[in-house]
Specification:
25% helix; single chain; globular; 3-stranded antiparallel β-sheet; 9-stranded mixed β-sheet
């Protein structure tokens, strides 16, 4: 165990049957034949959590059955202390005009209760249903121990500095929890320009006490992603373990920039962590990028206070 947290995982880590239904929608049907074409084998795609999906006949109903033992075994196999279970909400911007991914907080709440402190609940946010979303976030934070909100504004066609996102930031600041969001392009045929990392600039300035995590390195605007981590003490980021994995060679960050970004992404805690201070561990030196892949993306620092920046 290396004292690290997988901060970019979803609810299907504990309930694999929650994945797969998204392939009934046009956005995922297109994506699996374009961006993620290498994953399609003989008409079958296997989700990140192991569910095989016949793309021509995808499941239409999710299966919320928990597999806690399997998820814990996966954490052990990959050397993770804990994982965020994000209840991501995705909207069909053009084809269906409805939620095409809506992972239930109730399933994650049960997993958090049964996971022995190794699962971190991450609520979702629907900016088209602001009041309902805020009520659910507060309920699952106060009553079920959730400690994070992750949302996907680009699928709604919204930039992170859109007025409909601001109630979320205010609520997270009130509750003392961090917020995470995807930046960069969309793998699905959804608006990508609203995913430019620099659009978080206004948010970081307007909410200086709110910890904000930017996911997926912001490609193809990697330079903006790095700039945000450098300039704002309350902005963090996650990404792949090797900076050479950046698609654009001209925008590959140097080791110093990556290390500082990684330290910024992990050094400060947001609240009491999963593990007591006595269990502080050091991350192995070879991980020079400060981040690593573990089911999703992992945020690490060289000195981890039991958890990463997510828990403190």
């Amino acid at each position: 165990m290396t004292g690290v947290i997988d901060i970019m995982n979803y609810a299907p880590l504990v309930a694999p049957g929650l994945s797969g239904t998204e392939y009934q929608f046009d956005e995922f049907q297109t994506m699996v034949r374009t961006t993620l074409r290498p994953l399609l084998r003989n008409g079958i795609v296997t989700t990140q959590w192991g569910r095989e999906v016949d793309v021509a006949h995808p499941p239409t109903e999710p299966d919320p059955t928990l597999n806690i033992d399997g998820a814990l075994a996966e954490l052990d196999r990959t050397g993770c202390d804990a994982a965020v279970l994000a209840c991501v909400k995705m909207w069909s911007y053009r084809s269906h005009h409805r939620l095409i991914m809506d992972m239930p907080e109730e399933v994650v709440a049960e997993a958090v209760q049964k996971g022995g402190g190794r699962f971190i609940g991450g609520a979702g946010y629907n900016p088209f249903r602001i009041d309902d979303s805020l009520r659910r976030i507060e309920t699952f934070v106060r009553d079920h121990g959730f400690r994070y909100v992750y949302f996907h504004p680009m699928t709604f066609g919204l930039a992170p500095n859109d007025r409909r996102c601001y109630p979320l930031y205010a609520k997270c600041a009130e509750l003392g929890i961090p917020v995470g969001l995807q930046v960069g392009h969309s793998a699905e045929p959804l608006p990508s320009n609203v995913g430019r990392p620099m659009l978080v600039d206004d948010v970081a300035i307007d909410f200086p006490d709110l910890k904000i995590n930017l996911s997926h390195t912001g490609w193809p605007w990697t330079g903006e992603f790095i700039s945000m981590l450098w300039r704002h003490p309350n902005v963090y980021g996650d990404g792949p373990p090797d900076p050479a994995q950046s698609h654009d060679r001209k925008q590959r960050p140097g080791p110093q920039a990556v290390r500082r970004g990684a330290e910024r992404a992990s050094a400060a805690g947001c609240q009491q962590g999963t593990h007591p201070p006595a269990e502080r561990r050091r991350v192995p030196r070879p991980m020079t990028s400060g981040v690593a892949t573990c089911g999703g993306c992992l945020s690490m620092s060289e000195e981890v206070g039991g958890c990463s920046w997510l828990c403190g």
